[in-house]
Every structure is written in structure tokens, then in C-alpha cells.
Amino acid sequence: MERLDKRLASTGQWSRKEARELIRTGRVWVNGQMCSSPDQKVDKTAPVTVDGALIEADRPVYLMLHKPPGVVSATTDPQQPTVLSLLPSSYRRLGLFPVGRLDKDTEGLLLLTNDGPLAHRLLSPKRHVDKVYYLRVNGRLDEEDARAVSQGITLANGYTCLPGRLEVLGNAQEAYITIREGKYHQIKRMMAARNKPVLYLKRVGFGPLTLDKSLPKGGWRSLTIPEIDALFRQ
Ligand code: URA
After folding, report:
1. Can 103 be counted among the known catalytic residues?
2. Candidates 43, 58, 77, 103; catalytic one
3. Beta bridge mates, 30
4. Where are the alpha helices (H) located in the chain, listed in sequence order?
5. Helix/strand/coil (H, E, C) string of 39-70?
6. Which pLDDT does position 57 carry in this prediction?
7. What whole-number distance in Å separates Cα of residue 98 and Cα of residue 113?
8. Beta-carbon contacts of residue 46 (< 8 Å; ≥ 6 apart)
9. How confident is the model at residue 85 (pLDDT cuts 50, 70, 90)?
10. What number is the average pLDDT over the span 179-201?
11. Of all atoms in ligand 1, which is nearest to the CA of residue 189?
12. Are strands 2-3 and 41-42 parallel, antiparallel or unpaired?
């Protein structure tokens, strides 16, 4: 048994305060009966509806975050703000974690979830999920760079990257790059191997997901059902 307000808040959709307000205003029903007392204890398996829609506690959550620079892709850090600190407190109890990492100074699309098996699949080196980044370099990118990326750049430590794709943009200092693996500082090291150090890096695509242009830096939203379906088909 658990308190009704706690059960609602555990979905991450409402804070405890918002949940209590929903309950008091008669919008929450348990086992087909309206329940207006937030401290009512309910069975963990009892069906609970809000405005007629069934809520599921402990359901998996999938969020798209527009990571700003200056936060680390971790769940906890003794010194620095983490990507989780950008979410409301009600979301911090859901066991969310970032799927993969972006460097502290890298911006852009980061998937947050509490679905361990899906994250594991998406990060598996065998699965080769495409990651698309916009980058700006110190130097001018050319056809040679595009060819090197498509053949697999060899990093300073001797590792040869899987073939990727470099689409150089108008002024030759900017490009989109698609890679299918996620080695530590991979793009910075690839561009360093070309003597064109990265000045700015932003992830705009992850598998079937595209960074939502309406999300400001630090903004986030739940994935839509088609986006979640596409991740599962990846
Ligand atoms: N490659 C990098 O160098 N940094 C990132 O954050 C992501 C890919």
C-alpha cells in the first residue's frame, strides 16, 4: 500500500503538491471510485485514473534533453551540475540516466530514460546507432577530410574509427558529421587527427531522434509514442 499522492508523483508527471491538488479537486479515481483524500493508502496494483486516463507507476520514462554546455552527463557529481539537475525534482526519483555521454562542453540531444534494457541495446557497439553532430573547427574542412572520415580516421592512439560521413557546410569551418560509435572525445580526436581542432560541438541526431528545435538549451520534453516506437525498432 502507498499514499495516493505518492503514487501519482512516482510517475514523474506531477510533483507531490500538484498530485494533492489533483486529488482534492476530484480528478483522481481509484478502483473506479473518486478519491479526494491525498493521504489515502492505495494498493500498488489498484488502477488509478486522472481525468479518466489510467496512470502507470514505475513505467519507463523517455525524455529528450537539449543539453546545455557546463553540465556533466552523469546522474551524480560531487562538484558539478549534472543533466538530471535540469529536471524538476519529481523526475529525480525515477531512476533516470543519460543514454551515453556528451562532453561537458558539448551541447545538444541527450536521451534520458530509466529503461535499462533499451539503453543497453542502443549503446551496444554492435548496434551502430547513428549519431549526428554539428561541428565548427579551427581550419577549413575539405574533400580530403570528408574522404578520411568516410574511410575511417585513425586516432593518435592508433585506433581506426568506423567509417562515418562528413557533410561540409558553406564556409568550410562548419559541418555535419555522422558517426556510429561513441568513443571517448571521439569527434574531437578525429578532428585533431586532421589538424582541425573542434571549437564547437552539438549533437542534433541520435538514431531515429532529431533534436527538437523548439527546445531551448536546458529544455526537455517526453518523447512522443512514435519516437519511442522508432527507438525500439532501432
Ligand atoms: N565526440 C566528442 O568529442 N565529444 C562529445 O561530446 C561527443 C562526441
Report:
1. yes
2. 103
3. 33, 48
4. 4-9, 16-24, 116-123, 143-151, 186-193, 225-233
5. CCEECCCCCEEECCEEECCCCCCEEEEEECCC
6. 63
7. 7
8. 30, 31
9. very high
10. 97
11. 3
12. antiparallel
3-state helix, strand, coil in the chain (%, to 5): 25, 30, 45
Find the distance separating the first CA and the last CA of the chain, reported in whole Å: 38
Identity of residue 234: Q
Residue 59: all three cell numbers together:
513505467
Is 132 touching ligand 1 by the criterion CB < 6 Å? no
Looking at this protein, which amino acid is placed at residue 135? L
In the three-class reduction of DSSP (H, G, I as helix; E, B as strand; rest coil), residue 184 is classed as: coil
- Spatial neighbors of 213 by CB under 8 A, at least 6 apart, are none
| Cell numbers linked to 16 | 507531490
- For the entire predicted model, the pTM comes to 0.82
pLDDT of residue 138: 98
